[in-house]
Design brief:
The chain is of the alpha/beta class and about 350 residues long. Helix content is about 35%, strand content about 20%.
């Protein structure tokens, strides 16, 4: 009986020795002192190599040319483009400006968030490089230049829709450039797409939304004068187009307790002491989003196929949900979806 017990003990010892000497257990190394996320001296497993954030074999370069102040959504745009470049094995960088002589041969793609005056010189200087320029509807694609068009009539239509949607008694107006004239039609059509014959319940009884138009380059005092004329009809909300936008005008409107919809961040260029008053009545910022269009063009661009065209999307940011509620945003999104898929035209609603 005793011999059988000793034999059992010897067998167990042999099994334990075999387990401790096996090759299937990961080896460990001491972590370097001060390494983030670990305790100095603690053993860490030796793992197989994983993909790094920077491509190990860079096949070319992508350059994003954008102003120093990209505005709302810049971080998401840069992050998305960085990811696209990484997945394609391309290095990525941003610059505030680019000259024709600054485009080396390894640059496969240049993305310009604003079409520069020397666009033709840039594309000619690097004929094997693909270019994407973001601009208005007058920007033409061709050769190694593709374009992402920002259709201002679409944004103005949505501005009319949203401003009228959030204005009590539909009392809305837009401060718009006098050219092109179709922007005034787009704004009014946007509002009437929501409420038809937008007749308020209380006097003065006029058809909303209203539009005040002035030449581009008009100063803040001129826009304030136009707004005062519109205010005779008792406004509740106003859209500030890019032509009218200025810190001085925003400060003046904030003092009138009008709900505002604009096209750039309400804090841009505004003195710190005035920001709180402006944000208190700021409903939303309507801005173009070029990323979906760039993603759509991306495969052709990397394949060297230029001359493509796509339209930028629209989004709203800086939202004050007390003024532009989640429910109203859903209504606006439905209208925007129709606008982007072509089932709604910004100039399709007849005047009443």
């Amino acid at each position: 009986m005793i011999l059988r017990k000793y034999a059992l003990v010897l067998i167990l010892c042999a099994l334990l020795a075999a387990c401790s000497s096996g090759g299937g257990t990961p080896t460990t190394t001491a972590a370097p002192t001060g390494a983030p996320g670990v305790t100095a001296g603690a053993p860490t497993p030796t793992l197989a190599p994983t993909a790094t954030a920077v491509p190990t074999s860079v096949q070319g370069r992508v350059i994003l040319v954008a102003p120093d102040t990209l505005g709302t959504g810049a971080v998401a745009l840069v992050s998305a483009l960085t990811g696209l470049a990484k997945d394609a094995g391309l290095a990525f960088e941003t610059r505030p400006a680019l000259k024709p002589e600054e485009i080396p041969a390894e640059v496969k793609l240049v993305i310009l968030l604003q079409a520069p005056d020397d666009l033709a010189a840039l594309t000619a200087a690097a004929p094997k490089t693909q270019f994407v320029a973001v601009g208005g509807s007058d920007l033409s694609a061709g050769g190694n230049l593709s374009v992402v068009r920002q259709l201002e009539e679409q944004r103005t239509f949505m501005a009319g829709f949203i401003t009228t949607l959030i204005a009590p008694d539909w009392r809305s107006a837009g401060l718009l450039p006098d050219a092109p004239a179709n922007l005034q039609d787009a704004f009014i059509n946007g509002g009437r797409f929501w409420c038809g014959r937008c007749i308020p319940m209380y006097a003065p009884l006029v058809l909303f939304p209203l539009a005040g138009a002035l030449p581009a380059g008009t100063d803040a005092a001129g826009w304030q004068s136009t707004l005062q004329d519109l205010q005779k009809n008792i406004l509740e909300a106003v859209y500030i187009s890019p032509a009218a936008d200025s810190p001085d005008l925003l400060k003046a409107i904030a003092g009138q307790q009008l709900i505002m919809v604009g096209t750039q961040s309400p804090t841009l260029g505004v003195p710190e002491g005035a920001i709180a008053d402006i944000k208190a009545t700021w409903a939303a910022t309507l801005s173009f989003d070029p990323l979906p269009a760039i993603q759509k063009l991306w495969p052709d661009l990397l394949a060297g196929k230029g001359g493509q065209a796509a339209d930028a999307s629209l989004s709203w940011t800086d939202v004050n949900v007390d003024l532009f509620s989640v429910g109203r945003q859903r209504l606006a999104q439905d209208a925007l979806n129709g606008l982007l898929d072509g089932t709604i035209s910004p100039l399709s609603v007849p005047a009443q």
